[in-house]
Amino acid sequence: MTDLRFHDRTGPHSLAKIALASECILADASQGDVMMDDVAPLDAAGGNDLSFLDNPKYKDKFRTTKAGAVIVSKDMAASAPKGCIVLVSDNPYRSYALAAAHFYPWPAGGQVSERAHIEAGAQIGEGCIIEAGAYIGANVVIGKGCWIGSNASITHAVLGQKVRVHAGARIGQDGFGFSLSPKGYAPVPQLGRVLIEDFVSIGANTCIDRGAGPDTVIGMGSVLDNMVQIAHNVKLGKGCVLAAQVGISGSTTLGDYVVMGGQSGIAGHLTIGSGVRIAAKSGVTKDVPAGEEWVGFPAAPRRAYWREQATIKKLLSKGNSQG
To answer: Which residues contact 48 (CB under 8 A, 6 or more apart)?
Structure first.
């Protein structure tokens, strides 16, 4: 359950307001005045709590929940236990996220810690939260309503509105660029910026290098998990989702809504089409057309990769049996 020592809760809220905020429809509109105090998991919720069911794996917990109201899909609504109020959603998980944010909204802004360091020329938009130990470099621009976590550092960057940078993230550092010769390594000056569009979330200890000349760009609404590495000149489209320990090499471009599983990586100077999904631990070494699912190393289209693996397994099995 939520520990209110660490989170600020609003409410109670009526089901009518919750339904409106969370893109749901009350199965029985007459119950709109019923009040909910909090959100909670199915197996821990009480009569004044709102819960949700998205994964059918938990349907048995749904049928026995003590929750006062539950957000579910239309096809599961009839399975609600007696007395449980149903809110119907096309996307219960999204609706729960919106409902939970209604009870636990983004903190009020305008809080800049005295222990944050902000260099001359930096522009901080209205309603921003800058936590202790954060470093904002000279002439950095941060839009309205951003949240910069403790000990994060931002240089050579322009951030849009409602960007969240978690603790320890590093934005705008030198890209990994140098010229090799028998005379030694000659660092290439990194003269670009990092452009982060609105509503982006950047995980703890993630690093986003500034461009070498062109800018590094993180598209609107993208979500980067902890410990992600984005190299110089990379361009992410809108709504990309990168799980922990993803690495993208320099000058690679991702289209919109690309999803990358944990510890997957992409080589440099490639183009990844919109809607591509890359499985965890995969290594992409060539361009990927839009909408495809790739897996493995070197990564290949999902069906082709697994056919290849099955063929290799059969060949090995046949060889062992003959040996």
So the answer is: 12, 35, 36, 37, 38, 68
Residue range 161-174: average pLDDT?
A: 97
Beta bridge partners of 36: 13
The dihedrals phi and psi of 244, each to the nearest 5 degrees, come to -55, 140
Domain assignment present for residue 311? The answer is no
From 102, 156, 166, 232, the catalytic residue: 232
Domain extent at residue 74: 13-103
> In angstroms, rounded to a whole number, what is the distance separating the alpha carbons of residues 247 and 54?
30
| CATH code of the domain containing 94 | 3.40.1390.10
Residue 66: inside a domain = yes
- What residues pair up with 49 in beta bridges, in sequence order? 38
Whether pLDDT at 322 is above 70: no
Asked if 155 and 94 sit in the same domain, the reply is no
Q: Can 232 be counted among the known catalytic residues?
A: yes
Query: Within this chain, do residues 126 and 55 fall inside the same structural domain, yes or no?
Result: no
User: For residue range 77-102, what is the model confidence (pLDDT) as tens digits?
Assistant: 999 999 999 999 999 999 999 999 99
C-beta of residue 140 within 8 angstroms of C-beta of residue 153: no
Within this chain, do residues 91 and 133 fall inside the same structural domain, yes or no? no
Whether the ω angle into residue 12 lies within 30 degrees of 0, i.e. cis, is: yes
Q: Tens of pLDDT along 37-59?
A: 999 999 999 999 999 999 999 99
pTM for this predicted structure: 0.88
SS3 79: helix
* Both tokens assigned to 256: 């919109």
Number of domains in the chain: 2
pLDDT band (50, 70, 90) for residue 14: very high
Residues 165 and 18 placed together within one structural domain of the fold: no
Of the pLDDT bands very low, low, confident and very high (cuts 50, 70, 90), residue 306 is confident
